[in-house]
Amino acid sequence: MSRWRKRSQEERRELLHKAVPELEESQWINSRYGYSDESFRFGERTAQRRRQLLVPWLNVEVLKTSPAVLFALLHYRTLYPPEDFAALDCHQMESSWACGYFDVEFSAKCVVMSGPQYGDVVDWKAQQAHTGYTLGFPRARLVLEAQTFLMQILSRITDNILEGANAASASAGTDKWRDLTSIGFRHPGEKELWSPYTNLAFSRPPKLDMDYILSMAQTRKEERPGVSLETILSGVSRDSNPYTKEALEEDPLDWCLHQMLAKPDNQTHIDHAFLFAMIDDHLAKNDRKEAARLNEFLLREMADISALHESLTSLRLNRPRNTSREFEDVFRTEKRGIWSYMKDNKPKEHSWQELKKLGKPLVDGFYKGKAPSGVKNKAWLQQSQTMRGFVEGFFKEVENVIRKDLERIGLEAETIEETLSVVLVQNKPEYLEAIAREEEEMMAKITEAEKPAPDTFLDRSTATEGIIRADLVQTTQREKVKTRPDNSSSSSQSVDDPESPDIATLSIEPVTRLRVSPRTVGVVHLMYPDAQTKPRNITWDDFVYALCDAGFVASNNGGSAVRFERGSRGGSGDKGAIIFHKPHPVLKIDPVMLHGMGRRLTKWFGWTRDSFAA
Length: 614
Hints:
The chain has helices at residues 2-5, 9-19, 29-33, 47-54, 60-65, 67-79, 86-92, 94-98, 126-130, 137-161, 167-172, 174-183, 210-223, 229-235, 245-250, 252-259, 272-284, 288-291, 296-317, 327-333, 337-342, 352-367, 378-408, 413-420, 429-450, 465-476, 488-496, 518-527, 540-549, 591-605, and strands at residues 110-112, 121-122, 134-136, 514-515, 538-539, 552-558, 561-566, 577-581, 588-589, 612-613. It has five domains: 2-202, no CATH class; 210-317, no CATH class; 331-423, no CATH class; 450-505, no CATH class; 514-613, no CATH class. The two termini are 37 Å apart.
């Protein structure tokens, strides 16, 4: 490890040229090769270029820049069998395959790509081919050839690094190697583990994790609810067409963004994960002015595209793969949920009078009603509750209408409740908790504001000297007025009475005061500001440091998604995890985003401003 890590980048480059002279020098060969004359002249293709396109992610630049890349390749490619990487290795060369950059030999046979028969040549069978158990001979041969070439590269590089080393020094580094591989791998200058999404080839074999995909989708939904991929792409579309070599060389950022508009089903397009990795690399090599070209709107769109594509890639790399079905076949045979609703040939038509009756209370009470204004007192709170009641009543009536329609077409009760849960937000625990919390805090402030000021004046003409002195002592020891509610009494009440609507009945675990560094306390105070806190941006590294200092372990599990798993210092109760998205490309968190992160940490882990002490 030290023999490779302690070398300079130039020394690593020289060793790589000596060990593997045919290795590609620069990154992103997939984006450059399509513009070369060689790609169109079949007779000029060389064996060296063929091998470079078989492993387009492997090159001198990435190996010399990040020492951990070589360690990760050695670890994962020896720990897991080659069949675990077959789907990924096939996916990595998809654009070169679709564009016809490989000379292949045809055979009607197939090759087994998983299980103990990996590499066996067999006859073509529809079910095996559709599930990915077998692959056509021409493409399967490329996969096996790529895996052979990769193992040869790793062997030759390792032999050159260990040249002259003795067995004693090699065995002494076993503990360091075990520690490194157990924690995970990071690129230089990064706080969290690297992303398997943009570093697929340098990570463990892809494994379908529906819990992770669901949590990632939920995170994006919370930030941007109800946005489809088509809507995202239409929002970043453009009229120009920079599909030129000059565009790639002169403005690679614009070139990459334009490539993202390609449809994922088009095999000739540049893979989105490849494009995100290319953008990250480009911005890391340039100044802040280049990163500033990506505004907040575009960054949100990119985060959505990244999450959607990562989910799609995870599903497509999973084996066994589901057989693709035609829409007409699914529509004819499927009987669950929305498919039954779509088959309803006689949908119930609601008259204008019915719809008018449904919406009249909402229009008269909410839209034409008087919104609460002025000083926030009990009257203000009561008016706010009244206005909210009109909205909740409207959605309750909508529920009744939809429920009758769904029952009429014969949907199962479970499907009906699942469908209605989208409409009935007011029945969700998080909504009720948020309302209870808001009203509790407001009532505490109102009660505090209505307290009469203590009378510190005394009529000396009618009071004795002893009374005067006692009163003076009492007034000088007056307690400081609290600016936040005291939850101690309500907490005890909620334990005795589970039905109590007090804020203490919320499902937020009490968190003991945790000792952390002053740097972490500063981040927490910005996350939960008081009246004296001046809002400002913080860096992503500060946020990661604060959560790790509070007992979380950070790992980048895909795209901009970073998973924080609570360890032993994370507080009482069971362990848990939460996912946040790293802001790209400027690693800054603005106050609004930071407050949203704080609300999520409060919801799942009970964090507050007073949960930590330096």
